[in-house]
């Protein structure tokens, strides 16, 4: 009862005080009204003032922690992921260099441990996309980006591949090569010439997440970050590396020789999947029946390209594929390239052609037959075709990014389209088609285009790429469709990172979107 009486008295006093303040204010005595307000409501007034003054300050201090950490969220949503993608993209841009450093570190460690005269690196497949690696790295730490540093990222890259060591020793006469794992001792002792080959096998995103034992929530975080870094779904293939592009002349030469000139883009896609254009066997065809020169593994890139194309041509014939537009028979030939020719006949006899299901079945049958834990890549077709754009169709200039921040025309006679989106800064720009570089601005204003590239294609077609951060081709260079030519930036007359993309026919600007579905 006393508590209720005290509350009633306080309420009555507050009403009386408010009445005094109101009377003083209405009579024009502002100083008196202020005095009464301070006298009766001092704690409340100071509380309100403190909230007004200090609340924005505390919100400002907490903003970086919010932006750089997902850990406060039970589930990451796409909007918050997009905000953080910009922080991660600089590591995407360093991915290739840091991975090369990690591989060199591995090589040096093995050199220290092994007494060998020569050490070679061999790659069984192509490295993972940089955006996937970065996305999985973030998800590993539950998207708490405070763990993101160059040293931590580089250490993580050692988990994105596995490796095997193959040692051989040759006799002093140069004729005998003996695998050292057989514990065979050459008569008369060691010749002193030992070779070590480090066989690198890169993981796919799914394999890496499986190795890291990702639960569903971490997989979701990885997928959201990958989406934020990539932008929307790609309308074209993934970029062809400079290492693959450098073999354009040889690919053309042997494609003509073995009767498959229409399949040059397919050949480049196969090489991207097999090796990324690295090593002495870029087509990874050492076990091919046509390899009669290097029984212990091909070490000559030109010979690898010749044998790989010859074997692919035989797979295409076996699959009855006469055009790269025939997706079904092309898929059968590609899977045959990976599994071996026996698959093509088996698939035709049992199923009438290729399917993902029968590829998985064939792989399992071979595992049981040979007593091995794995056989080939049952998803090889999908892995190759991500690098392939059918002949006659233009490659999308910024793979993975389809958001148009400015349309053709756009009310201001805009002569192209602007491709933007979260995380696009520093991403690779690729050639829309085969051609010759006619303009390459590496520094300066570029007439408002900033750093830019013009490529002349067949039949009077020209493509232009503007506002780049870096241009990596030169005037006179021959480029192939999908080859990286520059990186997205905001140079010249630009208000933010994007790629201004133009198509001109006989010098007349065309709507680039007319060239895409």
From TrEMBL:
Keyword check for Membrane: yes
Gene3D superfamilies, per the entry: 1.10.530.10, Glucose Permease (Domain IIA) (2.70.70.10)
CDD domains tied to this protein: CwlT-like, M23_peptidase
GO molecular function: metalloendopeptidase activity
Ranges of residues in domain M23ase beta-sheet core: 413-512
Keywords from the named record: Membrane, Signal, Transmembrane, Transmembrane helix
Transmembrane segments: 45-68
Domain (CwlT-like lysozyme): residue spans on this chain: 242-371
UniProt KW Secreted keyword: no
One Pfam family it belongs to: Lysozyme_like
Identification of the protein by name: M23 family metallopeptidase
Source organism of this protein record: Candidatus Gallacutalibacter pullicola
């Amino acid at each position: 009862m006393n508590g209720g009486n005290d509350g009633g008295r306080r309420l009555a006093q507050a009403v009386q005080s408010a009445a005094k303040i109101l009377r003083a204010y209405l009579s024009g005595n502002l100083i008196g009204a202020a005095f009464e307000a301070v006298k009766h409501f001092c704690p409340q007034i100071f509380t309100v003032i403190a909230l007004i003054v200090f609340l924005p300050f505390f919100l400002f201090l907490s903003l970086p922690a919010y932006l750089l950490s997902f850990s406060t969220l039970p589930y990451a949503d796409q909007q918050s992921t997009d905000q953080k993608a910009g922080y991660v993209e600089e590591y995407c841009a360093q991915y290739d260099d840091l991975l090369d450093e990690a591989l060199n570190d591995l090589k040096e460690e093995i050199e220290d441990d092994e007494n060998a005269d020569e050490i070679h690196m061999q790659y069984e497949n192509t490295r993972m996309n940089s955006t996937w690696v970065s996305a999985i790295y973030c998800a590993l730490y539950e998207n708490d980006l405070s763990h993101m540093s160059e040293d931590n990222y580089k250490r993580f890259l050692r988990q994105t591949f596995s490796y095997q060591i193959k040692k051989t020793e040759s006799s002093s006469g140069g004729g005998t090569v003996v695998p050292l794992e057989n514990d065979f001792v050459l008569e008369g002792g060691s010749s002193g010439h030992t070779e070590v080959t480090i066989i690198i096998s890169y993981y796919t995103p799914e394999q890496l997440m499986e190795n890291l034992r990702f639960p569903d929530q971490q997989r979701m975080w990885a997928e959201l970050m990958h989406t934020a870094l990539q932008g929307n779904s790609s309308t074209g293939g993934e970029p062809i590396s400079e290492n693959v592009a450098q073999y354009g002349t040889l690919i053309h030469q042997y494609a003509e020789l073995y009767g498959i000139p229409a399949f040059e883009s397919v050949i480049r896609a196969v090489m991207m999947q097999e090796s990324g254009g690295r090593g002495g066997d870029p087509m990874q065809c050492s076990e091919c029946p046509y390899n009669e020169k290097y029984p212990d593994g091909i070490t000559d890139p030109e010979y690898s390209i010749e044998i790989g194309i010859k074997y692919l041509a035989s797979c295409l014939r076996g699959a009855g594929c006469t055009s790269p537009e025939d997706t079904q028979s092309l898929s059968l030939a590609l899977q045959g390239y990976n599994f071996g020719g026996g698959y093509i006949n088996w698939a035709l006899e049992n199923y009438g052609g290729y399917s993902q299901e029968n590829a998985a079945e064939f792989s399992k049958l071979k595992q049981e037959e040979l007593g091995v834990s794995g056989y080939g890549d049952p998803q090889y077709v999908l892995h190759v075709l991500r690098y392939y754009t059918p002949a006659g169709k233009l490659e999308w200039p910024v793979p993975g990014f389809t958001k148009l921040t400015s349309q053709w025309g756009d009310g201001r006679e805009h002569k192209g389209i602007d491709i933007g989106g979260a995380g696009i800064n520093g991403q690779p720009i690729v050639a829309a088609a085969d051609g010759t570089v006619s303009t390459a601005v590496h520094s300066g204003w570029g007439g408002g285009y900033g750093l830019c590239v013009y490529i002349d294609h067949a039949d009077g077609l020209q493509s232009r790429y503007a506002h780049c951060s870096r241009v990596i081709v030169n005037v006179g260079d021959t480029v192939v469709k999908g080859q990286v030519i520059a990186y997205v930036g905001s140079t010249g007359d630009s208000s933010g990172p994007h790629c201004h993309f133009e198509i001109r026919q006989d010098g007349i600007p065309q709507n680039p979107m007319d060239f895409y579905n």
